[in-house]
Amino acid sequence: MNIVNKLTLRHIKENKGRTVVTTMGIIVSVAMITAVFVALASFLNLFADIEQVASGYNVATLTITSQEQYDKLKADDRISDVGVISYVEGSYQLEKRKSDYLGTGEMRSGDEAYLKQIFTGDYEGEIPKNANEIAVEQKLIDKNNLDWKIGDTVNIPLGNRIILVDGEEITTGGSYTNGEKFDLSEIGEFKITAILHDNPATVSSTDIVRGYKFNKDSVSESNRTDVTIALKTINHNSLDELNDIVKTYSIEEYEIKYSYLEMFFAYDDGNEMMTPLISMTAFIIAIIIIASVVLIYNAFAMSISERVRYLGMLASVGATKKQKRMSVYFESLILAAIGIPVGFAAGVAGIGITLKALGSKIISTGMIMGISDSNVEMKIVVPPYAAIGILAVSVFTIFISSFIPSRKASRVTPIDAIRQRQEIKVKARKLRSSKLVRAIFGYEGELANKNLKRNGRKARVITVSIAMSVILFLSCNYFCDMFTRSVDVEGMMPYQIAVFADYDKREKVLEVLSKTDDIDKYYCVSNFYHYFADGGEAKIEQPEYYTDTYKNFADKGCYVYLNAIDDEDFDEFCKANNLDYTQYYTDENKAVVLNNVSHKENSSKVFSNKMLGTAFDDLYYPMQAGGFAEYDSDNYICNLNPQNTISMYIPFSKYVDLKLAEAENNPDVDEADVLYQVGIETDKHKELTERLNELSAQGDLNGTVIDYEEEFQVMNTIAFIIQVLVYGFIALISLITVFNIINTISTGIALRKKEFAMLKSVGTTPKGFNKMIMLESAFYGIKAMVFALPISALLAFLMNKAMGMATVPFELNVPLYLAVTAVVFVIIGFTMLYSVNKLRDDSIVETLKEDIS
User: Fold this and answer.
1) What is the pLDDT of residues 184-237, one digit of tens each?
2) CA-based angle 47:719:275, to the nearest 5?
3) What does the radius of gyration of the chain's CA atoms come to, in whole angstroms?
4) HEC string of 529-541?
5) What value, to the nearest 5°, has the Cα angle with vertex 400 and ends 396 and 401?
6) 66 CB contacts (<8 Å, ≥6 apart)?
7) What is the secondary structure of 422-464 as a DSSP string?
8) Which of 256, 515, 594, 676 could form a disulfide with 506 if both were Cys (CB 3.0 to 4.6 A apart)?
9) What is the pTM of this model?
């Protein structure tokens, strides 16, 4: 180790406070970088596990036409397993069924290798090995009150399920449909070898799995066979391997699990999921790098301020510019050697706790039937690409942070060190303070103003650091807010289940629902929508129809929903908005328009009064905007449609009149086309859906039941993940912002010990001194915010325009800007007072003697 590095190491040890502050900055930076890479890798690993458990431990289904193809696939050293799917007659209807709905379904069958791939959940017994053996879901046994158990031999009727479509009989499958017939072919005799417990890969499609004894000699061009294959190793080259297998063995028909392979970055160019994911990750990493550079650079810059005389001394004894520059790099290397491992460990621990909670949430929501903690868990993984990425980005961030300070260090000369020209570059005339400042703030205010001018570069570093921190926080907050609004993470429907019925069955449906348990609330949600491309079709693109905030709302097209609401609820809705509801029952086609698309109370209005009377001609029924309604988060009517769409409302009886009038004038329209859709709110959507389906199958409900909660479970879960990560990211940026301001101010105060001692020596009172410090804090805050607020607003505007989303117009969050400004002043003032208070007991004489900058 050369003498320069030895002196640098000594300086690091002697200035423990500065070393700790700089190292903490590196640790925070590395921890955030680690969190991003580990979160990405762990989520991809979780979704890969879910995909496999939900669909089977295989990666592709191939259709083979010869025995030779099967043999080659079995012999391929890249393939670990080949299973065969059988398509034997599989519809069944149990003899001792509780109801047709509960006792009718489809069998799935395949050889032992295939069944091993799709048995991804818990089960008792052994996998069926031939066509006379079956595995049965426990819930099928329980629902039909059967006494089946492992080892029993049972008789099951097999055949075809038939429904009538336009007078023609066709074969059907899936869930039981009211009125279908069962065409018996045979009574099969089977031995139960296994009991399944919500097996994820089969539970959504079948409750009985049948074995199969495969004979490869039966495969031919006329008797094609589907096989499933699993690869020994899954990585980013797996898609290329599968394409090569298909090409090598002349497979003409195949189906690859692209969504599973994507989790390992095995995908084609232009992938719709991975490309935006990587872009988003890159953006977040860029933000972290900027935030970290602001934080770490400031620490190194302050370190250089402390070492001016030390660097001048090195220059006086012959140290070259390169040696002085390398001394800063050496310091950054030493601190990185400590900060990177600690930051990595902290990042893994912190994100690990968060991801465990998120993973449990994803799994517990049951977004995929059969997935539970027993077969899937969130694993915290750090694959090689993540480790390399963390190290590379961390080193790059630290290097960039120390680059400018190292260049400044290389230019320090002995004369500069003696005169402190690097620290104070100001002429006497520039220290003159305005008489207005003294008149308003007194002598202390004038002194505070001169201190800012005298401190030159130090003051600029503090001001720029505060401004950059505020800009970073406000810009990130705006981006995250715009992102969550654009993906509509809170725009889910207020009801969980919908029942569709013919209008003449309306009273019967409502009667059944009124007597059914576990229903919290139900109401009419009949609606239809139209997409107006470029807005021109509906003449709703004119700017005068909109407020200034939303003047470009329909430029790129928009969705318009027409909702038919129960008459009583519609009347109350109109009364709440001071509208005369009677006019909406007349022959004029008027509708109430929700004057809000963000679904946030007290947000900007969308439409001007010129929209009133405007006809939406292409909306199936030409409707006019008759009046405006305000958004009410507690009213289900306001939440029936997604955010960023136009919502219109009419009473249901008016919708019926329109439909019947259309039936009279148009022979292609039947009165039976009038549909009544009921939305049901419940906390037990699964149990209630099953109960309503059974009532429908028995003919009691006379309607089609759809569990939207089940369908939107993935969206709800993704929304939850987005919200946690977005607000978590904002919280981290906030911590960095606060830490950076405190670090900058406290360091600046520490470097001015001699200056403060001098002021006290000439008679400055404690009260006057504190007033000077508070005014200096105010001046720092004012200067920083004068730059930070306009720049933040400009960046927000540019981000909004760059993303090109007219449905998310540019709006400044004024309360947030005011709150941030207040917080910044409080932090600056508190930090300066705290830092000065630490110097209170220092001896004036001893401080003036100290040889510090």
Assistant:
1) 999 999 999 999 998 989 988 899 999 999 988 888 888 899 999 999 999 989
2) 55
3) 36
4) EEEEHHHHHHCCC
5) 115
6) 219, 220, 221
7) TT----GGGG---HHHHHHHHHHHHHHHHHHHHTTHHHHHHHH
8) 676
9) 0.70
